[in-house]
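[Solved] Which block belongs to which protein?

Original post:
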Amino acid sequence: MREKVLVAMSGGVDSAVAAALLVEAGYDVTGVFLCLQGSRDSDGRDGSPCDSQDAADAQAIASRLGIPFHTLSVADEFARIIDSFVGEYENGRTPNPCIRCNERVKFGRLFELADSVGARHVATGHYARIAERGGQPVIAPARASGKDQSYVLFRLWRQWLGRVLFPVGDLENKQIVREIAGRLGLEVRDKPDSQDVCFVPDGDYASLLKARGGRALRAGRIVDSGGKILGKHDGYGRFTIGQRRGTGVAMGRPAYVIGIDPVNAVVTLGFREELLADGLAACEANWQVDVPLSFDAIVKIRYNHRGAPARVTLTGNGTFEVRFRDPIEAVTPGQAAVAYSDGCLLGGGVIERSSKRDV
């Protein structure tokens, strides 16, 4: 009997090719479109951040592949992802909502559905791979290094990993994905990749924050590290640690955002040396493998970060500290610190604060 697999289909080329590869591999494939209908858009109105064209594209792909297709409503869960995103900005942090969405919405709800219909596997179009470490399944970076998405998958539950499939993760580059789509006659072959947070498709975070009360858009002061007032801003939520452009302040040489105080609506600017940190503290840890109390790893502090050698030390229930071998720039609260070793994802957590080096 063929193994059943549910594949998340977004209407894009990656998930389309993922589904196609599973069909070619002999799986019993069902496509599932995650419907966000009813969640609130950036203007505060009821609506869906997924364009209806995406749903139509996903259904057309399933029809072309000859597989069943279902729509799964995740409106309530997705609304909570948006609420968390806004709350993080209000607290002066810079979140990555895709991380929570993958755990709670995409994989969480898909595994619930898979269990209810007797499907062994869940698959997505993520660029990542499943490997083996000590006889256990682990997530590994995609072969297409410039497309790797393993960073945003660190919150996947350990017990899911033996059931997860990432069909495009073994492909060498995105061009191969598009070539497969062309060979199969899939109309989404040349569909552009999404570039923004899906519920802020135009990248206008300020409109979303304004629609949610505008707390993070309170006007305030811009100061230097000594407290000297340099100017004013129209919302601390418009800034992130490490930001250089758009501050509206000239300091004689390149200056960066080095601090955000949401209580007093104060943004602090400083020079590159003030942006450096030699460590960080993180919370909400999720380890996909057993790790010792202290270990060496390569730690990534943002999605496109190459990673840096560091020592990771567990400090309590769901918390850990990272000490980098060399000082690192722009450790940003709200982003994730994700640890890798021997080419495998170990886990990670949410950055609470950086520990600064002496300057």
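(Second protein starts here: sequence line, then its structure tokens.)
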Amino acid sequence: MEQESVKIVRDKDEQQGLIKIYWEEAREYVQQVEPTFAGIVDELEPDHSFPLYLAYYPYGAYDADTQSSLLPDGKGGYYRISDPNAPKDIIKYLGYSKDYTPLGMVLEKEIECFIDLKNEGITIPRWVYKPGKIFPFSRFLGKKTNRIYSPNDLLSSTAGARSAFMLPNIGCSINHANLQRDFNVQSSTPKSMYEHWSIFKEILQSEAIKDEWRCCVMYFSENWITKIRGDIAWTSLNKYLYEIAWNQFEYERNRIYYEIILSVIQKKRNLKPNPYLADTARHLFATTLGAAPGYAPATNENALPLNIIQKAFIESYGLKKYYPTVMYPTHFNFEEDTTPIYYSLQHPSTHVFSPKSRNDSTTLYDMRELQRIMRIFIEELTKETSISSDTIFNEVAKEMNLKYFHNKKCQHHIVQPSADLVSLDERFQYVTPNNKANGAKFASDAPFVRGCISISRNV
């Protein structure tokens, strides 16, 4: 079970939203979440010409949208660095990033970077930044060039999990009216998981709730960037950041080779799958490697104020029959994680959108076909003669453990009943200690688990 993030800067918030500090104070916080970084900077001894800014965001607040970063004004609102009324001090020290996001480090809670496809009614989680994570790299570490590869109108990011949703159905209009009454929720009854976040956010913003959940990001002023890029005395920090960035994009840099390998396997085995399922199979490998987020049941407050959300749905909405399981996006660590991560055909988050070749196929049929595709890929990848035999791709293929779930019975005994999930992963019945769900059961008929794949490592 993932550990609760350390509360390290709550006493500095004072509801001001943005606080200017210096390294002698910041190092205490950074030491707890990124000690190697802190050690390197200690050697550099940056003075007061290198200010840092602590920004505090409540759950669901955008710290950046498709235009630029958004900074809290301490009054419940936000402004862009490019705004004419932005504070002069902010323009002076953070103005270098007026058209994008300044270099930052998450100190507390999490940030989700995602693609919002409003017309499709889905979000695609791209990155989840946990405490100690530095972002974004592409604007600051790359060599200056007229070619800009990173789009600035595609990704957004929020404090906490934007792609979180309640696992059991919360689409009953009568029960939803209770939330509207108790928390002044304006959103209509949700018709999809995409709409759950807006309701979570409205509950937490209600005057009936005292929500102290905050995500803290530390932004670096321009002098830091100038020194990192051009001062030989700062080479150690420059090198360290390059190493982090290099490792973060390891999969993306080698993805073309994996694509070729899988294409060769398809041709060799005369595999002509539904393009949609072939894309999904590739995405499962990326999820196993941690290159793409999957989903997991929340058991702490790192990604969202879980206690308040569960309490609202138990006591106000009236969710009595099922556990108030909240799913959230996170990255799987193949080497360290002992609990599974999940993907669902009913809630796709692949990075490509090939059409289904058979629109009349059932999800249960697609699950069996996906299992066949993955079985063939794994058989070929694990052969000693495989061209990926000395790579992490080969290791993953040997040790990844995939299980397929649906609430309908599979006559081929390939897909397991989704009701089995709760006995295999106790997180699905987690309820925060302050809440009670007596008599509740796992929502085995929830859309997400009607076509769900669990990913873990064989031990």
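Accepted answer:
You had them paired correctly. Confirming on the second one: The chain has a mean pLDDT of 90.
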